[in-house]
Every structure is written in C-alpha cells, then in structure tokens.
Write a structure and sequence with these properties.
Elements (H helix, E strand, L loop, with lengths): L9 H13 L10 H10 L3 H14 L1 H5 L10 H11 L5 H12 L4 H4 L11 H24 L15 E5 L16 E5 H9 L2 E3 L5 E3 L1 H5 L4 H6 L18 H11 L3
Antiparallel strand pairs: 1-2, 3-4
Helix pairs in contact: 1-2, 1-3, 1-5, 1-6, 2-3
C-alpha cells in the first residue's frame, strides 16, 4: 500500500461488490456516474472504486474461464469478501442493500423505490415483503447487467420487455434465489415457455424447443417464435454464465420431453 492510502474496510468492500453485481461489465470505469456516486459516498476517488471493481473481476471464475483476468493485485480481504458474498446469495445481497441505504441516509425501501402504499404498515410481514422486493430488484439488476440488457433468446434490448428469469425456480432452491448464475435475461413470451417447460437451454447453451410444440398443428406464429429457435445458441452474458447444474435440473425436471 502506498503512503497516505487508507485500508479498505469490510463495509466499503461490501458496497463495491454490490455495485460490481449491478453494473454491466463494460461500465466498471471511473467516469460511470454510479462509480462516482459510490466514491463520494464512502470518501474514495472514482479511480479507486473502478480499480477495486476490476480487482473483483480478477476473482470472478466466469471471467477467468473466458480468459479475462482483471487487475492482478486483489487483496486477501478482497478475496474474503468476494467469497463471503458469492457463497451467501440468500443473505448478503439484502444486507449490502441495507448497508447502502445507511450510507445514503435513507431506508432500504426508498433506496429501492418501493412505494409505501404497497407495504404492510409494520411488523414481521412488512420486513418479509421488503426483503422479497429488495431481493427481486437486486436480482433483476444483476441479471440485466450481466446480459447487457439483452434477451438471451431473441437479442431484444428493450428493458420493458425483459424479465430476470430463474433457471431453477424461486420456490425450489431458496439459497440460490439471488444467485446470478441461476438467472437469464429473457423476454416475457419465452420466459413463460421456459417456465412451463415448452423450452429449455441445454448445458452447451443451446435453445431446445419441446416436442409438444413440434407435434401441434403448425401455425406461422409458433414456427416463427419457437420452432425456428430450436438448436440455436443463446446470447451469453458477459459474466455470471448460467450454472450447468441449474441447466441440468431444468432439462431433466422442467422440460416437456
């Protein structure tokens, strides 16, 4: 560490990982307004924040697998916080959002733009609803950032049409509900097909259409929107590649063979 530099705290690193998850890979730079905002919030320079984000990229196994190295001098604490976050998706995204709200001097509800009228007034029910809504918001941002706001099936880039879909359903695997490797950016129509098993993604990242649709009397819309997609490659994310085990689960237990 250079003279005059201050050590990063656990809280600062938690906020940096939080931001890393929510920014597209190509926007981890000092000119990004969100990087500048976090820098102002914790008393660091935008360059320091950007450098730390790139340090985290060096720890990201998905980027390593693609030969993207990031910065090479991440600290022991960087690795500890990274591993803690990425092994506790069921806990730490929400905790990091609460921490961010504290730094912003606001509530986690306001930070995540949850209207007060949509929430119970108090008690455990309110806490549960807030946690679910905040987690859903974090998951959506992480997935859309990973896929650069692009549908992995069609290439549509209109955010209003995009859903952060789960590969292994929310109801089945609580621990991985917020794991970005259990998510895909997908448009609403194909999300419904994926959810109901009329479509899946194979472990080599190809689209597979259910025989159920092939057996039906063909219509132009089914042909155009589904059958033509069979065996095409999905558009891969820049990071947080879909986990093979989650894809296997969907292929075996959700897909209509």
């Amino acid at each position: 560490m250079k003279k005059g530099q201050k050590l990063w705290t656990r809280e600062e690193l938690m906020l940096a990982v939080n931001l890393y998850c929510k920014l597209p890979f190509g926007r981890l730079h000092r000119l990004n307004p969100e990087v500048i905002h976090l820098a102002n919030l914790i008393g660091r320079t935008p360059s320091a924040i950007a450098y730390k984000l790139v340090n985290f990229a060096s720890l990201d196994p998905n980027l390593k697998a693609r030969g993207i190295k990031g910065a090479s001098n991440s600290s022991k604490l960087d690795a500890e916080i990274w591993n803690e976050f990425f092994n506790n998706w069921d806990i730490l995204p929400f905790e990091s959002e609460k921490l961010l709200a504290n730094f912003e001097n606001t509530s986690v509800e306001r930070l995540n733009h949850i209207p007060e009228f949509e929430l119970p007034t108090e008690g455990k029910m309110r806490e549960q609803v807030v946690r679910v809504r905040v987690n859903q918001s974090f998951f959506r941002r992480s997935i859309l950032a990973s896929y650069n706001n692009t549908c992995c099936i069609t290439g549509i880039q209109q955010p209003e049409f995009l859903i952060a879909g789960h590969i292994k359903p929310w109801s089945v695997d609580e621990k991985n509900r917020l794991n970005p490797q259990n998510g895909i950016a997908i448009n609403a129509l194909h999300d419904r097909a994926f959810e109901t098993g009329l479509m899946t993604i194979t472990t080599d990242f190809k689209i597979k259409i259910s025989p159920t649709l092939f057996k039906q009397k063909k219509s132009k819309s089914i042909e155009d929107f589904f059958l033509k997609l069979d065996n095409q490659d999905i558009i891969l994310p820049s990071r947080f590649l879909p986990d093979i085990e989650f894809l296997k689960y969907h292929n075996e237990f959700r897909f209509m063979h």
